[in-house]
Amino acid sequence: MFPILLDIANLKVALIGGGDAALSRLKALDEAGATGLKIFADDFGKEFWEISDKRLVTRMPYDDEIKNFNVIMIVDIDDKRAAEIAKKARKFGVMVNVEDKKEYCDFYFPSLVRRGDLIITVSTCGKSPTLAHRVREIIGKIFHSGWAKRVDEVAYKRQQWRDIGLSMREIAQMSDKYIDEKGWLDYEELASTKKEA
Q1: Per residue in 129-175, pLDDT tens?
Q2: Alpha-carbon distance 124 to 75, whole Å?
Q3: Distance of CA 21 to the CA centre of its chain
Q4: CB 101 within 8 A of CB 108
Q5: Domain 8-109 has CATH 1.20.272.10
Q6: Which one of 4, 57, 160, 166 has the fewest beta carbons within 10 angstroms of its own beta carbon?
Q7: Which pLDDT tens digit goes with each residue over 113-125?
Q8: CA neighbor of 71 nearest in space, from 14, 138, 2
Q9: Phi and psi angles of residue 181, each rounded to the nearest 5 degrees, phi first
Q10: What is the pLDDT of residues 55-69, one digit of tens each?
Q11: 3 with 121: CB under 8 angstroms?
Q12: Can you tell me whether residue 163 is helix, strand or coil?
């Protein structure tokens, strides 16, 4: 496996399925900034309908629609339909993920801790989503909500150093020094699960 982060704001993404897991995936896609998202579902609840809004097509995708996407995510549909769509997607060179069907996955979803622009991922490459989720819970306690501000703070300092003409190497050195001075990555700091206001 080769871990990457996709900027889904620049990709055409299809979410296929409308159950509870699809609703969770939809919320995560919206949070991640999926602007080219199209949703296909023929069975869904009220909340799914409301969040999907005009992006929802109330049927499964046609072949000529499948080939127009960069990424397809399939959740909450029966195995036979999921396998058929996945095979067609691969035929068209579209990356596909079918929930809990490793044989039809070109990529996997890591468990995710998001603190503003700080993104920490955990993956077992589809072998144990439960273990990945449990590890994510621990990391989420260590890297509390205050880390979003820390990322913005060090980004602001980096911009200041750029503005005065420091080289990339000097900026990296200054960033290291700043982080050390703040004590953000000290063992005692990370071991504490105290939440910041």
Answers
A1: 889 889 999 999 999 999 999 999 999 999 999 999 999 999 999 99
A2: 19
A3: 14
A4: no
A5: no
A6: 4
A7: 989 889 999 988 7
A8: 14
A9: -60, -35
A10: 999 999 999 999 999
A11: yes
A12: helix
